Amino acid sequence: MRSSTTSAPKSIQQQVLRIISKRKAIKPTRLRVSSELSRELGFDTVDVVDIILEIERNFHITIPDEVPLSTVGDFVTYVATHTPSHHWAA
Predict the structure, then answer these.
(1) 20 to 30 A from 88, CA-CA: which of 4, 12, 14, 55?
(2) 3-state secondary structure string, the chain?
(3) Burial code of 21-60, b = ≥16 C-beta within 10 A, e = fewer?
(4) Would you state the pLDDT for residue 7?
(5) Which pLDDT value is given to residue 90?
(6) How far is residue 8's CA from residue 85's CA, in Å, rounded to a whole number?
(7) What is the pLDDT of residue 28?
(8) What is the largest CA-CA distance in the chain?
(9) What's the pLDDT tens digit per position in 19-78?
């Protein structure tokens, strides 16, 4: 069985975790890919919208409203699959 990490590049995962953790002053090390934003971490709709906007700005992508984003891993996976790889060559 696979571990709970995603196949996302480490740099993307670290940046997404940093953005999410900054929103509620949570240490990035406390976040797990399986952590649910609302149920486990206490994020409300406004927090999630702000995280989406910050991620869109940082990664130059658009996240449609209908994309289901309930866990940390959902964000990491979405960003990893929608960000052109040339952004992460460095």
Answers:
(1) 4
(2) CCCCCCCCCHHHHHHHHHHHHHHCCCCHHHCCCCCECCCCCCCCHHHHHHHHHHHHHHHCCCCCCCCCCCEHHHHHHHHHHHCCHHHHCC
(3) bebeebebeebebebebeeebebeeebbeebbebbeebbe
(4) 65
(5) 40
(6) 11
(7) 86
(8) 35
(9) 999 998 888 888 999 999 999 999 999 999 999 999 999 999 999 999 999 999 999 999
What is the predicted pLDDT for the residue at 84?
74
**In DSSP terms, which residues pair with 5 in a beta bridge?**
none
Give every CB contact of residue 3 below 8 A, 6+ residues apart in sequence: none
Listed in sequence order, the residues at least 6 apart from 42 whose beta carbon sits closer than 8 Å to its beta carbon are 24
What pLDDT sits at residue 3?
42
The amino acid at 7: S
Q: Which residues pair with 71 in a beta bridge?
A: 36
